[in-house]
Amino acid sequence: MANLNKVMLIGNVTRDPEIKYTPKGSAVTDLGIAVNRVFTPEGGERREETTYVDVTLWGRQAEIAGEYCKKGRSIYIEGRLQLDSWEDKTSGQKRSKLRVVGENFQLLGPRPGGSGGGGGGGHSGGEEEYSERPARREQPSAGGGFSRGSNTAPQPPIEEDDIPF
Fold first, then answer.
1. What is the pLDDT of residue 34?
2. What are the residue boundaries of the structural domains of the chain, listed by start?
3. Which end of the chain is more exposed for a tag (fewer CB within 10 A), N or C?
């Protein structure tokens, strides 16, 4: 039988995320998002309900989220559901919590405090995307700069103005 565990959410960040590190040095951050649903019940007034979802991000994504996600910012999260179960130490009761483990995320809307203008190398709409795809590691070259692997020509150093976010 086929299985699928995929979650896609758009909501607003409910608190500034805090980056923590595991004993082995992996970054992890938990953030909360609020997802709103507007509906009209049969013959009734328009209603809105909010669902609060806990999201866990790992590795480089956790570091990026810790730096750029701020309370109130709109975000798109792609990930999977995970059920955590444990026994409460004080009451002895079994507890569980359903959370989303984020695999990709994209910040939506304009950057807070940013002008939204400027000439820019192909970046559109004030949206930034981050995914768990493996990045190529940069290696120091013999000339002291950095190159992207052994089969490519040396790349010039990246200036702060070259970074799109």
1. 95
2. 7-39+48-135
3. N
Q: How far apart are CA 146 and CA 96, in angstroms?
A: 47
Nearest alpha carbon to residue 7 among 110, 78, 73: 78
pLDDT band at 117 (very low <50, low <70, confident <90, very high): very low
Decide if 137 contacts 44 (C-beta within 8 A): no
The model scores a pTM over 0.70: no
46 in Cβ contact with 71 (< 8 Å): no
Domain at 7-39+48-135, CATH from 2.30.39.10, 3.40.50.10540, 1.10.357.140, 2.40.50.140: 2.40.50.140
| CA distance linking residue 154 with residue 47, whole number of Å | 58
Q: How far is CA 48 from the centre of its chain?
A: 25
Helix (H, G, I), strand (E, B) or coil at 10: strand
| Res. 148: pLDDT tops 50 | no
* Mean pLDDT of the 61-79 span: 92
Token pair, residue 133, equals 């795809």
Mean pLDDT of 60-74: 91
| Dist. CA 70–CA 15, nearest whole Å | 7
